[in-house]
Amino acid sequence: MTELAQLDPQSRIAWIGVGTMGRRLCSRAIAAGYRVTAFDTNPACLAEIVALGALPAYSVAEAIRNADIIVSTVPGDDALRAISIGEHGLLSNARQGAVFIDTSTVSPAVSAEVARAAESWQISYLRVAMSGTVTHAEQGTLMLMVSGMPAVYEHTRPLIDVFGSRQFFLGRAEEARYAKLVVNLLIAVTACGLGEALALGRRGGLDWSQMLDVIAASPVGSPMLHYKLPLLRTREFEPQMTTELLANDIGLILAAAKQNSVPVSLCSLSQQMFETRIAHGGAQEDYISVIKLFEWMAAINDEPALAPRHIADTDKSNP
Questions:
Q1: Domain identity same for 202 and 167
Q2: Are 187 and 129 members of one domain?
Q3: Among 40, 55, 85, 283, which is 20 to 30 Å from 214 by CA?
Q4: In its keyword annotation, does this UniProt entry include Transport (predicted)?
Q5: Using an 8 Å Cβ cutoff, are 122 and 98 in contact?
Q6: Residue 292 catalytic?
């Protein structure tokens, strides 16, 4: 590993990808005092982050010129390959001693490909996978799963701490990628299980708000459920994470499972549920709107009565 440049609030940060999540992470780095140059293929996204204090760049090469730290937040495998590998990629154009941090949700296989390319160019590569919503990103309360060289992680902690204090350093290779897929597998299966349960409860005559109160207070009242309670109570599914995005992540899970010869029957079934929800027009709604699909399958065609007020669920101590 080449010698790392000293990281301090004056360190030069290049940020590739300032869309929904990237803009929020990047804005926190700017607020923390880092000098950020940003690039995005979407001019509107770039204009938003420039308004918050970033310097604009109009290519990857321009953004990373002289950068100490390069951070990417891009949509998936193809985008990560495009910005990082090849003649015009950031790895071949980054200065010696730079660190490349990727925060995208991508497959372990493509991440390993990028790792090999980074090693050939003597660029330090850190995977920082995130779990949480855009609200958590804005507040700097994401849960972070990190893998790479331990010295690189410690070196970049001042920047990574800006994104979230709950951090898990998991290893030197693709452990962070697998951890993110494990979490998202559970999210997908749990959302479908909740959809079945709520459909059964409605068919049995349970009041919608009271049923949610009971579930939230029960041993299955998980943090995930509590995050989604406001959307479930109002049935206004403004996305924290879209159905389409989770469906894409399920594709990564299934590919990793196949590569590792792991049967994931429940996850495979959940993929069908989310793809069907997309076909029913729910692509850009929050993924928890999959509950509407289970209602449709149970021939529940009416909206439940919504209580104007509900019991506050403040006890989150149950496992």
A1: no
A2: no
A3: 283
A4: no
A5: no
A6: no
User: Are 154 and 222 contained in the same domain?
Assistant: no
Q: Which of 180, 228, 258, 292 is the catalytic position?
A: 180
| Domain carrying residue 163 | 12-173
Inside any domain, residue 168: yes
**How does DSSP assign 109-146, residue by residue?**
HHHHHHHHHHHHTT-EEEEEEEES-HHHHHHT--EEEE
Residue 144: give its domain's CATH number: 3.40.50.720
- pTM for the whole thing? 0.91
The shares of helix, strand and coil residues in the chain, as percent rounded to the nearest 5, are 50, 15, 35
Q: Which H/E stretch holds residue 99?
A: strand 99-102
Q: How many CB atoms lie within 10 A of CB 298?
A: 15
Residue 96's pLDDT band, with cuts at 50, 70 and 90, is confident
CA-wise closest residue to 197 among 291, 313, 289: 291
Q: Which residue has the tokens 């929904």?
A: 20
pLDDT digits (tens, 9 = 90+) for 148-177: 999 999 999 999 999 998 999 999 999 999
217-252 burial string, b = 16+ CB within 10 Å, else e? eeeebbebbebbbebbbeeebebbbbbbbbbbbbeb
